[in-house]
Specification:
Structural class: mainly beta
Mean pLDDT: 80
Radius of gyration: 33 Å
CATH class: Mainly Beta
Number of strands: 10
Strand order of the largest sheet: 3-4-5-6-7-8-9-10
Distance between the termini: 55 Å
Length: about 260
């Protein structure tokens, strides 16, 4: 008896629903109206996004970025942080021995260590749809990185000794201006992943030391007897322009 009542109620509900969508007009035609109306997906109205770039650790770059929704599809991203040892650059520079790009006066016999530096970035973004950190965007990014190096000793091939040189300070600046295309996706609980690729120009500035042994240097300087302390250190600054292509992702929290 209970099952009959349940089935009867279900049937009555089905018939009622059918008649609520079906109307018979005066010409005896049956017109069926679809009551289903698709509802557009609702996106959380988030205006702030704080993120880190996990892959940047391999280039000694530790930025923290903050993105703010300005108006409509326009967002602005700014950020800053520290720099340290650039492992990928050192590997591609023969273990660090050509860290200043094989410049003509560059000496690779300094025993260098990497000090902390700094970085900053700014990027206006235009989202193709106003979806609050969701969807495809286009951006123009300027990023600056400053790497510091210190040497206290130098392997002098003339005297075949390691010479103490005090503190020799060098640095490398990397300034990128890139056009980016990215895709941001809210994976849930306001956690957003931002994938991007970019292409642009890179300005490299190398400020490095040149060690000159004064023992009979070019037949001009003569120190007798030969001594490993007879040297002079001069500094050079060279700038080079290249094309750069980059990719990566940021992950963070939107609110």
């Amino acid at each position: 008896m209970k099952q009959v009542i349940i089935i009867s109620i279900a049937w009555i509900g089905f018939v009622f629903n059918t008649f609520s969508q079906t109307v018979q007009d005066s010409s005896s035609r049956i017109v069926v109206y679809d009551s289903y109306v698709p509802v557009a997906k609702e996106y959380p109205k988030l205006k702030n996004f704080i993120a880190i770039s996990p892959l940047s650790i391999f280039i000694g770059d530790f930025p923290l970025t903050y993105e703010r929704k300005i108006a409509g599809p326009l967002n602005i991203m700014i950020g800053g942080g520290l720099t340290s040892k650039n492992s990928i650059y050192d590997l591609t520079s023969m273990g660090g021995n050509t860290i200043f790009d094989n410049s003509a006066y560059y000496s690779d016999r300094f025993n260098r260590s990497t000090d902390m530096g700094y970085n900053y970035v700014i990027q206006p973004k235009i989202y193709l749809r106003d979806h609050y950190f969701n969807g495809i965007y286009l951006g123009m990014e300027y990023k600056f990185r400053h790497y510091n190096y210190t040497s206290t000793t130098y392997d002098d091939p003339t005297t075949n000794t390691t010479v103490s040189v005090g503190e020799v300070k060098e640095y490398r600046n990397v300034a990128d201006l890139k056009f980016n295309c990215g895709w941001a996706y809210n994976i849930g609980s306001n956690v957003v992943i931002d994938f991007y690729v970019g292409v642009g120009t890179r300005n490299n500035t190398y400020h490095y030391a040149d060690y000159e042994n004064l023992n009979g240097y070019n037949g001009i300087y003569t120190v007798s007897p030969l001594t490993p302390t007879a040297y002079v250190i001069q500094y050079q600054t060279v700038t080079k322009e290249t094309v750069t292509v980059s990719t990566g992702f940021r992950i963070g929290y939107a609110f």
